[in-house]
Amino acid sequence: MKRLAILGSTGSIGTQTLDVIRQHPDRFEAYALTANNSVDKLIEQAREYRPEVVVIANEAHYEKLQEALADLPVKVFAGAQALCEVVQMDAVDTVVTAMVGFAGLRPTVAAIKAHKTIALANKETLVVAGQLMTDLALQNRAAILPVDSEHSAIFQSLVGEDSNDIAKILLTASGGPFRKFTPEQLRSVTCSQALQHPNWQMGAKITIDSATMMNKGFEVIEARWLFGVRPEQIEVYVHPESIVHSAVEFQDGAVKAQLGVPDMRLPIQYALTYPERLPLEGDRLDLFHLGSLTFERPDLERFPCLGLAYDALARGGNMPCIVNAANEVANLAFRKEEITYGQIAELISKAMQHITFIANPTLDDLFHTDAETRQWSSAIITQ
Q1: Under DSSP, is residue 188 helix (H, G, I), strand (E, B) or coil?
Q2: d(CA 104, CA 179)
Q3: What is the pLDDT of residues 282-320, one digit of tens each?
Q4: How far, in Å, CA of 20 to CA of 211, rounded?
Q5: pTM given for the model
């Protein structure tokens, strides 16, 4: 029985993790559930899964949560510090980092220092602090297992290949809803259009990142740290069917890929059960029905955010942290209709030029960079 702490249990990854637990109650226990603001959903989850601990990060919801669960033998906490404390509890075996954004960094650091296994769905952790996090995991003998479908596919393709060098990582992307839009059409796209992802059901923030392909840029950075490859070894392929979740090319030219229907429960479950595979209810891939698979080169003029992510990775230091913070501000502003779709990339590019560059940042430097970038980016939007 593995006891899980699920950071962000009310989001897309969190709810699908709970579905995996529902299918395998003899293997997994939801020991701790956390949310930021979705207090009603957290209450509902707590009543179904009966965790030992629940945490609401926004302390304004603490009283409501405590009163709603008063009849259950569950410990209720609130605040960002409580997230760091719950992942360090002795009873917790694995921490599923399903929080969105930079906020997931601090509790992930705490979990690694407590020698927990990390099922990593919070890509920003490795985007902003890849070198520091991989070094920290090595020092504390904490395994980081990828949950993103693309990185899970790479991970699965590498099983049994420990002694074989990677030639290239083939990172696939759906292309999102604007794959065939002209530059003129992109100038007038709306948030509601950007939220219509053709293949995946995800939260609003990551869906917008998928539309701009910044999400794929972040996955490039994440892959560099997860698999120890050079940036030039990572190639992005636009694959609109989202069936090949990613692939690895080896030195002899052989390519191994993981295929499946778009269903995040598979990579979630694999991260929790590796190296074992358990049954999983759901649709199965039917290649006869599918018929064909297509692949295209990404258009960096249409999707400049992908190019900015590659540039940030090449610069290194705190540059990916700058890009992430500016993107979080721009993403939210676009969803609030404060900026246009095209201004997302413009704002990020300006932040990369303006914010102080640090070649070898400490963790404290990254927290300062994040705060500085958010303040500057927000000020630019309100001008």
Answers
A1: coil
A2: 30
A3: 999 999 998 899 999 999 999 999 999 999 999 999 999
A4: 28
A5: 0.94
